[in-house]
Amino acid sequence: xxxxxxxxxxxxxxxxxxxxxxxxxxxxxxxxxxxxxxxxxxxxxxxxxxxxxxxxxxxxxxxxxxxxxxxxxxxxxxxxxxxxxxxxxxxxxxxxxxxxxxxxxxxxxxxxxxxxxxxxxxxxxxxxxxxxxxxxxxxxxxxxxxxxxxxxxxxxxxxxxxxxxxxxxxxxxxxxxxxxxxxxxxxxxxxxxxxxxxxxxxxxxxxxxxxxxxxxxx
Length: 218
Ligand code: DC
Prior knowledge:
By secondary structure, this protein is an alpha/beta fold. The chain is built from nine helices and eight strands. The termini are close together.
């Protein structure tokens, strides 16, 4: 076995289920897990708390660089306080997508993401895990589902959490975010040539997890 720490990169659009699949795969392999979207969500959230506009690239960069974040005990902590579902709302997702267009914000979060690569391995989910953050990943998966299926999944998730939701607004929001994430000049949402496509529209979570595990050869 080589001494390179293995990485499984799972990229894909909003609410595709990549976070759920990535988390389970990491658990089964005993690997670390990076939810890179959380870092963009936290940047948008911290910016809001500090009155920095999501359009202000120069103002956002130090916010992203100074994020005092810890991932522990299945919770995310920002400056010592548990963040809970505050970054899981649709507004936080929209904010994340807006701050994520800025190259200086992306650069500020780059090394922080690479630092998650620790033995025995890492499963990382996001938009540019395969293209920018871990271009040498051993396995690259591009996980999608139709916008309708994703809106429905997100709807169920929000209702389960007791958060309000409207399926039509969700679908429109998802389409807007997909368009923004795919159209930005830096690290756009798009499969790399060496990525394996996984369409989960008609798949269960278990089937998607199995698909990824079956393709991972150390
Ligand atoms: O995966 P998510 O829905 O939590 O991500 C929220 C937003 O963050 C997404 O719309 C775009 C941005 N993002 C990104 O640009 N690059 C990543 N690697 C992860 C997320």
